[in-house]
Amino acid sequence: MELVDTVIEGAQDKDRREFDRLVERYHKQAYNVAYRMAGNHADAEDLTQEAFIRAFRFFGQYRRELPFDSWLYKIMSNVFIDRLRRKPKAKIRSLDQPIQTSEGEVEFDVADPTSGPEDAVLAMEVDSRIQAALDKLPEAFRMTVIYADIEGLSYEEIAEATNTNIGTVRSRLHRGRRLLRDKLKKYEHQLI
User: Fold this and answer.
1) What share of the chain is helix, strand, coil (3-state, %, to 5)?
2) Are residues 52 and 13 both part of a single domain?
3) In whole angstroms, what is the distance from residue 33 CA to residue 153 CA?
4) pTM flag (> 0.70)
5) In whole angstroms, how large is the CA radius of gyration of the chain?
């Protein structure tokens, strides 16, 4: 019985060392994907950590002949979708509708984004505008655009990571890019 325990411990140590090397190699890349999905640093760190924890938990089931990053992205996609499902639905309200306060109705005042010294600020805000536009995409389109255009994954890798077929990936990528382009159209002259 001791020999069996020693062999199992040796295999576990080998898996642990292999997993540690993979985490080192893919952590930054995974964080970047998580940031694009989540839209902020705190949630991206949590998403990355949770994805690696799940990956470690199921590392024994990982087929070594497949790319680790595709397998990790599939896990990350599932973690992200799980988080979205647990998140309370946002209440949407019209900007034209007055707000009720104890002092009566107050008009909702939105600052004009075109006023002020925007040229200097715009250079620093390109990433935040792209991120905001990404955040507004439906989750399936967002993940597909992130995987293709930010991470450079192939259609096959995206299909594997999102558990869909290649035709669906192509459709989502086309529609996601179109939606993103529409959302960024008003900033077109500033993003070039």
Assistant:
1) 75, 5, 25
2) yes
3) 11
4) no
5) 22
Residue 8: both structure tokens together: 């199992």
Residue by residue, pLDDT tens for the chain (192 residues) are 453 344 345 456 777 888 899 999 999 999 998 998 888 888 999 999 999 999 999 888 888 888 888 889 889 988 888 888 777 665 555 556 666 777 777 665 655 555 555 555 655 667 777 888 888 999 889 989 988 888 888 898 898 888 899 999 999 999 999 998 888 887 666 555
Does residue 140 lie within any of the structural domains?
Answer: yes
Total tally of structural domains belonging to the chain: 2
Q: Are 176 and 147 in contact (CB under 8 A)?
A: no
d(CA 130, CA 181): 10
> For residue 177, is it within any domain?
yes
Q: What is d(CA 96, CA 107) in angstroms, rounded to the nearest whole number?
A: 8
The CATH number of the domain holding residue 122 is: 1.10.10.10
Q: What one-letter code names the amino acid at 137? A: L
Task: Output the six-digit token pair for 129.
Answer: 């505008």
CATH code of 35's domain: 1.10.1740.10
Is 6 found in the same domain as 81? yes
- Residues linked to residue 100 through DSSP beta bridges, in sequence order: 105
Query: Would you say 159 and 165 are in contact if contact means Cβ atoms under 8 Å apart?
Result: yes
